[in-house]
Design a protein that fits this description.
Elements lengths: L2 H12 L28 H8 L7 H11 L9 H5 L15 E2 L6 E2 L1 H12 L10 H12 L15 H12 L9 H5 L6 E2 L2 E2 L10 E3 L4 E3 L1 H11 L10 H13 L9 E3 L1
Parallel strand pairs: 5-7
Antiparallel strand pairs: 1-2, 3-4, 5-6
Helix pairs in contact: 3-6, 5-6, 7-10
The structure holds heme C (HEC) (2 copies).
């Protein structure tokens, strides 16, 4: 760890309790002005994201597009249900996570794809971070590229939003830091070679140079938890799902930029 980074962490760990917004379901922290994570990247990394021919994430999008159109052994292709005027998936990912009408549960895009596999294709769900699930998620997300994020946090989604907000404001790990301390209070500052961004999920799923591969938003969240020396949660855990909803509400209005490229 670089000294500058350690200094900031110690400073943060020593400062007062993060101040959670008052406990009324709709409240959230929103950095001003709202800025995408790509704003804080080095110019060459940003250029990589902006060039579809150079953006390595486009390989997952293309693979996802192929999988989407593939029918296997009598299992209908995704495309067979999702290419109609009313059933196509353009813009859909910008409104996730969302409550599933059938079960009343909150689903992110990964969970929704798996629900379609089990419900409508008689296929097994795909594992988190498997190449196929990453590819399908990348494709579905890319169909919303440029669409402003807008999510519903009313009704059955409301307790999820509050759960996500709690996670965002709770100190954890050996460094005893909450998400809000870095991403609300210290964005724009340097930490371990990164400029801390506002912590929006809008570039994910995305390609991280550090991973040398493509990954989900939850993989990024696991890295942030590990960064404060907390035990990362399991993929698909209720807490991470809830955090995804909180992040989406907090990012509302920013365009979805997946496939993002990040350091
Ligand atoms: C010690 C400071 C720190 C804490 C605490 C922290 N993060 Fe991060 N986070 C970072 C850094 C550094 C990065 C990489 C640079 C950046 O901000 O995009 C990052 C990246 C992210 C990103 C990706 C942003 C992008 O555009 O690529 C998200 C989303 C995120 N954090 C969410 C969270 C959440 C949710 C929590 C709490 C569970 C959290 N972070 C806790 C420092 C922190
Ligand atoms: C046999 C038809 C069928 C197939 C095949 C199918 N889906 Fe679906 N999909 C649906 C229906 C119906 C819904 C509405 C929710 C529900 O009933 O499960 C839906 C909902 C969705 C949604 C959310 C749409 C929204 O507006 O919120 C996404 C994303 C999605 N499907 C992706 C996929 C992907 C990716 C595949 C292939 C892995 C797939 N679906 C295969 C029928 C299908």
């Amino acid at each position: 760890m670089k000294r500058a980074g350690l200094g900031l962490l110690l400073l943060l760990a020593g400062c007062t309790e993060p101040s959670a917004p008052a406990d009324t379901g709709a409240e959230l922290s929103r950095p001003e002005p709202l800025q995408s994570g790509s704003t804080f990247l080095q110019p060459d990394t940003r250029a990589l994201q902006e060039d579809d021919f150079a953006n390595p994430g486009m390989l997952w999008v293309e693979r996802g597009e192929a999988l989407f159109h593939e029918a296997r052994d009598g299992h209908p292709a995704c495309a067979s249900c999702h290419e109609g005027e009313d059933t196509n998936l353009a813009g859909v990912a910008a409104h996730y996570p969302a409550i599933d009408d059938e079960t009343g549960e909150l689903m992110n895009i990964e969970a929704r794809i798996n629900a379609c596999r089990t419900r409508h294709q008689s296929l097994e769900p795909l594992a988190y971070e498997s190449e196929d699930l990453l590819a399908l998620t990348a494709y579905v997300a890319e169909l919303s590229r440029g669409e402003p994020i807008e999510v519903d946090i009313s009704g059955a989604a409301s307790p999820w939003f509050e759960k996500g907000r709690d996670y965002f404001f709770t100190r954890r790990g050996q460094l005893n830091l909450a998400c809000t301390q870095c991403h609300d209070d210290n964005w724009g500052k340097q930490l371990r070679g990164d400029t801390i961004s506002q912590g929006h999920g809008t570039g994910f799923p995305g390609y991280r140079l550090e991973w040398q591969t493509f990954g989900s938003l939850q993989r990024r969240l696991r890295d942030c938890d590990a960064g404060v020396r907390a035990e990362p949660l399991d993929y698909g855990s209720d807490d991470y799902l809830a955090v995804e909803l909180y992040l989406a509400k907090r990012a509302e209005g920013l365009p979805l930029e997946s496939p993002g490229v990040r350091r």
